[in-house]
Amino acid sequence: xxxxxxxxxxxxxxxxxxxxxxxxxxxxxxxxxxxxxxxxxxxxxxxxxxxxxxxxxxxxxxxxxxxxxxxxxxxxxxxxxxxxxxxxxxxxxxxxxxxxxxxxxxxxxxxxxxxxxxxxxxxxxxxxxxxxxxxxxxxxxxxxxxxxxxxxxxxxxxxxxxxxxxxxxxxxxxxxxxxxxxxxxxxxxxxxxxxxxxxxxxxxxxxxxxxxxxxxxxxxxxxxxxxxxxxxxxxxxxxxxxxxxxxxxxxxxxxxxxxxxxxxxxxxxxxxxxxxxxxxxxxxxxxxxxxxxxxxxxxxx
Length: 301
Ligand SMILES: O=C(O)CCC(=O)C(=O)O
Ligand SMILES: [Fe+2]
Fold this sequence. Notes:
- It is built from eleven helices and nine strands.
- It has helices at residues 2-14, 26-31, 35-43, 55-72, 98-104, 107-117, 194-198, 251-254, 257-262, 265-270, 289-299, and strands at 46-49, 89-91, 122-131, 162-168, 180-181, 203-204, 212-216, 221-222, 232-240.
- The strands form two sheets. The chain has a six-stranded antiparallel sheet, with helices on one face. The protein has a three-stranded antiparallel sheet with strand order 6-5-8, with no helix packed on it.
- It is globular, with a radius of gyration of 20 Å.
- 2-oxoglutaric acid binds at residues 85, 142-143, 148, 164, 166, 179, 221, 223, 236.
């Protein structure tokens, strides 16, 4: 009993307010110079982080996305309704690919995810897309104005539960189809109405090569229109607060001991290797009390 009381007291002490930076995260926000990004995410609902990904790794990522789409043949089934977006070639469930793993384990990305969706966050969706140029008069390609908290009941919680990054392999300007967002829209904590979606208040998230755009699950955003030749190759990576149900199921990676032993440390976190979920057995026995304790403490941070 005394033990349970002290655990409850510890959790009460650890409880972090929405948008606050924990003591354990603060040194990394300092080290990677991310205070401006933290403030933009909190105040505007989106931000662009620069100098996060080595350029040669971006070239490898670009090749992975194009090869995977080619292998799946998904570029031949555009607009069939199965993909991420109308008219956009997509590949999904990319965690486990060594190049993607190296990208999502990068320290600036990890620190910003921890700020946005808390300690113990897990991989939600890891997808690649290729957006083509829209010719004059052509149909809209991509996802119209929406928010990524879509499957959570509204009003959405103040603690953000889904955090998406869009990482363009060549950077993205407005003309190249940069993702657009509505500043301050995350404060509504609900989907936009059709009237609000028609208002056209979005601004582009211009990303230099090596950077990424990030927004909160409540932020209204949409695919931009590419008006110039070439394609926009993008990694869309969403992470989720630890108690929410991840969209993509990575249990196969969690059970693959050889994979986990060789993967970057951050990948263990993304598949929930340190969380209590799935560790209970019939009869109320918790095989791993350490994981339970760790999960409870992380859930507050
Ligand atoms: O295609 C884009 O620019 C945005 C896609 C999107 O809505 C997302 O990844 O959550
Ligand atoms: Fe989205």
